[in-house]
């Protein structure tokens, strides 16, 4: 992977072998999208299970030109361990199962990241081919203290945006009815604006709510 790769272990010991698994999986992502700007991987064990193994959680944050792609996986060994009789579950078998579970968790997470990158690349190729200006929307709800708001697009969809996506630090200038152009991506909870730019010439938008609670 050409971009910088950061690997973090939480509540578990770092492992050269696990790092190598992650580096191998991360290197393959370039074949799905060549403009990855950064990749952060966090592995952790939030809770330990005495009899039924360990639940490994993984989070992958990929920085791309117009935002971030986040993938989370939280599988557990418990379901598989319960299928075995405790009398037959030796210490060696338990450790081996945990080892395989961690590798599977990493593989599944990076496969999901690859699918997300493919979708992102297809959308970006389509935008480049059309060479159309970014779509317009207007601010239909703004929560200044919380640092986010919602846009209403031309087709009537409500699209979430965070203050960090507003170009030029212009978030404080936004108010209900402000017209903007935006780029759309896929966040953890669905569609969101990855960039928001205020249009220099504002047009009054009727029907916009005057307050945002």
Offer a few descriptive terms.
single chain, 2 domains, OB fold (Dihydrolipoamide Acetyltransferase, E2P), elongated, 213 residues, four-stranded mixed beta sheet, 31% strand, disordered C terminus, 3 helices, 9 strands, Double Stranded RNA Binding Domain, alpha+beta, five-stranded mixed β-barrel
| CATH fold descriptor of the largest domain | Double Stranded RNA Binding Domain
Q: Portion of residues in helices?
A: 25-40%
Which parts are unreliable, with pLDDT below 50 for 5 consecutive residues or more?
76-95, 209-213
Query: SSE string, helix = H, strand = E?
Result: EHEEEHHEEEEE
Main β-sheet, in a few words?
5 strands, mixed, barrel
Named CATH architecture of the largest domain: 2-Layer Sandwich
How would you sum up this structure, described in words?
With 213 residues, the chain is α+β, with helices and mostly antiparallel strands. It folds into two domains: 4-130, Ribosome hibernation promotion factor-like (Double Stranded RNA Binding Domain); 136-198, Nucleic acid-binding proteins (OB fold (Dihydrolipoamide Acetyltransferase, E2P)). It is 27% helix and 31% strand. The chain is built from three helices and nine strands, in the order βαβββααβββββ. It has helices at 16-28, 78-82, 91-130, and strands at 4-10, 38-44, 57-64, 67-73, 136-143, 148-153, 158-162, 179-187, 190-198. The chain has a five-stranded mixed barrel with strand order 5-6-7-9-8. Strands 1-2-3-4 form a four-stranded mixed β-sheet, with helices on one face. A hairpin with a 4-residue loop joins β6 (148-153) and β7 (158-162). α1 runs parallel beside α3. The longest helix is centred in the middle third of the chain and has 40 residues, at 91-130. It is elongated. The protein starts with a strand and ends in a 15-residue tail after the last strand. The model is unreliable at 76-95 and 209-213 (pLDDT under 50).
């Amino acid at each position: 992977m050409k971009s910088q790769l950061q690997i973090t272990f939480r509540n578990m010991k770092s492992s050269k072998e696990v790092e190598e698994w992650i580096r191998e999986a991360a290197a393959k992502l370039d074949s799905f999208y060549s403009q990855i700007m950064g990749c952060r991987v966090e592995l952790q064990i939030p809770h330990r299970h005495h009899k039924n193994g360990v639940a490994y959680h993984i989070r992958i944050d990929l920085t791309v030109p117009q935002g971030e792609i986040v993938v989370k996986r939280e599988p557990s060994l418990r379901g598989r361990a319960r299928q075995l009789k405790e009398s037959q579950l030796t210490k060696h078998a338990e450790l081996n199962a945990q080892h395989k579970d961690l590798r599977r968790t990493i593989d599944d997470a990076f496969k999901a990241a690859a699918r997300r990158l493919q979708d992102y690349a297809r959308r970006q190729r389509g935008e480049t081919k059309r060479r159309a200006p970014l779509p317009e929307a207007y601010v239909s709800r703004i929560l200044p203290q919380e640092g986010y708001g919602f846009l209403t697009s031309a087709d009537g969809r409500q699209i979430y945006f965070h203050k960090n996506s507003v170009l030029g630090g212009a978030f404080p200038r936004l108010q209900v009815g402000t017209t903007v152009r935006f780029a759309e991506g896929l966040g953890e909870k669905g569609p969101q604006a990855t960039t928001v730019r205020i249009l220099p010439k504002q047009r009054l938008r009727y029907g916009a709510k005057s307050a945002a609670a």
